[in-house]
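Q: My labmate handed me this sequence with no annotations at all. I'd like to see what the chain might look like in three dimensions before we decide whether it's worth expressing. Could you predict it?
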Amino acid sequence: MNQALVLNVAVFAVLLLLLTQTRHRGWSLAQKVLAGLALGVLFGLGLQLAYGEGSDIVRASIPWFNIVGNGYVQLLQMIVMPLVFASILSAIARLHSASSLGRISVLVIGTLLLTTLVSALVGVLMANLFGLTAEGLIHGAREAARLSTIESSYAGKVADLNMPQLVLSFIPKNPFADLSGASPTSIISLVIFAAFLGVAALQLLKDDEEKGRRLLAGIDLLQAWVMKLVRLVMKLTPYGVMALMTKVVASSNLQDIVQLGGFVVASYLGLAIMFVVHGVLLSVFGVNPLRFFRKIWPVLTFAFTSRSSAATIPLNVEAQTRRLGVPASIAGFSASFGATIGQNGCAGLYPAMLAVMVAPTVGMNPLDPMWIATLALVVTVSSAGVAGVGGGATFAALIVLPAMGLPVTLVALLISVEPLIDMGRTALNVSGSMTAGTITSQVMGQTDKSVMHDDDVVELAQ
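A: Here is what I predict for the chain of 462 residues:
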């Protein structure tokens, strides 16, 4: 076993070295990430074929792969709070006046919440259409361990909050604690704190122009500094994706995936419908949806493979400004808020589907119009403050299910297919944020039409 373990780790190291060679080929970040994804899938399949499902050798190898995979995830978690704080602060500071903030925030947040409401209804439709139910799902050792983790780490912080307490938890009282991610709603609290600081900066500029300009220069410096940090972490994405995909594929149980195949198909069909909804909304506001999706495709690819809405913020902003003609202030605002509020996939579609699946097990009728309306409202309100790094969907489900009087056990039972679905959910989250920014820019008449209608796609920074 030791020899096999050493061999697996050695092959993994060689694949990492092979992936480093892509930097000499002038590949874009999206191409490098896809290469990492492909290598991870192939290596994971190779381990499955060589040792079989549930092999002790594979289980012993995974902790070594986790050094790269989980290390990458922890680096993403490291940059989330500084990135969101700097992005919101910079976006507001770039406004000409504080009065513009109200209109931008209403349009961006309104679009995000509206599309989340629609995604919740689509989730209800898909779960009922496919006849999905929590009955009969296997509760094995992994699921029991996951449930134990949820109950000890998440449920006590999230599930016990009623709706007024949840709304109150958004209001920051200790921004330093929020910077450390002390609570599940820390991100939205930090966004509100940054917004207040940004408005204060604009007021200072109005009252004392010299001090205000020095402060704005400092905010720009902070934004540039944080973006350099983000770029450093983003360069590691291909390696992190390869490690994560290796773990997912090598440790996957084919029988579990087949058993939950209906949920996977229903989820991706629901995601596809929501992309169409985004396209319809854009066309209503005068944006060609085909051109829009062609221009943001590299950003969606990065979101799909990294499974992080927050880490996608820099590419999100660049694509909106350099490819879609959206002003930097609106782009930064929508990208940051889109990673924390109204995530269509993680906070809309997913918890709604879970609620429909669990409802029959406790005697509730998931086809009752009043029940569906209540669920859609709860999902929409609770979609604020969902973390933009892996785990946000779990937080959303742990808020929605107890609020509807439902048990949270199902969250643990879907562990086998969680990574597979999370990739699509993250891409939809990012599409929703970019849709909100583009629509807001169109409504406010600030879109640079020459950039929007230019079919020569600008390459995003690496």
